[in-house]
């Protein structure tokens, strides 16, 4: 079956936040691609135009550590986003107990992740939804960030429960307190959580609600004092937490090198 005359549809790869993802062959290049079909029905007409305009900008974001958006078009009432095809993602790698992750492997994944992030932040594009299953891994082990900018264009509404739960573990404290003004630091925070997850081989801060997530963050890094974060008490969803002091970071990551801990602590702004 064809999607326009350019793409030959293959099997479904999975269901994502925004809709179904399927494999396809790009007859123009012969390459395998992944097509995300985004339901537009729920969005107002105006949003479609804005979305398409912004998606045009994403097509210009080309970097070895960013998933390339090859094409974008509306078709049969759905928006179709065509990406380069990737073999697997970091979540699957972390979960697969048969895969050994040496310090060199972790370093290399983190470097690729941060290079991709730096490239986009330099162009003033935030990711906003960094998590291990958005870090795609190619056949040669190259890591690329997926879904760049989509969270901002489409928002994160109508996420089903699992999506919301998994995304929560990577959310920065200012987001959990409901800030409306945030910057690239929210992606760096999430990248720190992913770094920690590579070291631990399990999600680092697994909150069961937004309140619990902040509790987990403060248990790990200490409750921030208002002298450290004066704006905190003004944030829309601010609630007071009982003061706890931070355990040594080393106690949470017994096997990590000093350099790894140094980088990690800076990514968590501590
Ligand atoms: P989520 O919204 O949960 O992050 P996605 O919409 O990114 O999920 O993807 C849904 C499914 O499609 C996932 O299982 C993922 O493995 C697969 N997928 C997404 N992008 C690609 C890609 N570029 N290449 C291969 N598979 C992909």
TrEMBL record:
<keyword id="KW-0597">Phosphoprotein</keyword>
<keyword id="KW-0418">Kinase</keyword>
<dbReference type="InterPro" id="IPR008271">
    <property type="entry name" value="Ser/Thr_kinase_AS"/>
</dbReference>
<feature type="active site" description="Proton acceptor">
    <location>
        <position position="129"/>
    </location>
</feature>
<dbReference type="InterPro" id="IPR037770">
    <property type="entry name" value="CDK7"/>
</dbReference>
<keyword id="KW-0723">Serine/threonine-protein kinase</keyword>
<feature type="binding site">
    <location>
        <position position="36"/>
    </location>
    <ligand>
        <name>ATP</name>
    </ligand>
</feature>
<protein>
    <recommendedName>
        <fullName>Cyclin-dependent kinase D-1</fullName>
        <ecNumber>2.7.11.22</ecNumber>
        <ecNumber>2.7.11.23</ecNumber>
    </recommendedName>
</protein>
<dbReference type="InterPro" id="IPR000719">
    <property type="entry name" value="Prot_kinase_dom"/>
</dbReference>
<keyword id="KW-0808">Transferase</keyword>
<keyword id="KW-0067">ATP-binding</keyword>
<dbReference type="GO" id="GO:0070985">
    <property type="term" value="C:transcription factor TFIIK complex"/>
</dbReference>
<comment type="similarity">
    <text>Belongs to the protein kinase superfamily. CMGC Ser/Thr protein kinase family. CDC2/CDKX subfamily.</text>
</comment>
<dbReference type="GO" id="GO:0008353">
    <property type="term" value="F:RNA polymerase II CTD heptapeptide repeat kinase activity"/>
</dbReference>
<dbReference type="InterPro" id="IPR050108">
    <property type="entry name" value="CDK"/>
</dbReference>
<dbReference type="GO" id="GO:0004693">
    <property type="term" value="F:cyclin-dependent protein serine/threonine kinase activity"/>
</dbReference>
<dbReference type="InterPro" id="IPR011009">
    <property type="entry name" value="Kinase-like_dom_sf"/>
</dbReference>
<keyword id="KW-0547">Nucleotide-binding</keyword>
<dbReference type="GO" id="GO:0005524">
    <property type="term" value="F:ATP binding"/>
</dbReference>
<dbReference type="InterPro" id="IPR017441">
    <property type="entry name" value="Protein_kinase_ATP_BS"/>
</dbReference>
<feature type="binding site">
    <location>
        <begin position="13"/>
        <end position="21"/>
    </location>
    <ligand>
        <name>ATP</name>
    </ligand>
</feature>
<dbReference type="Pfam" id="PF00069">
    <property type="entry name" value="Pkinase"/>
</dbReference>
<feature type="domain" description="Protein kinase">
    <location>
        <begin position="7"/>
        <end position="270"/>
    </location>
</feature>
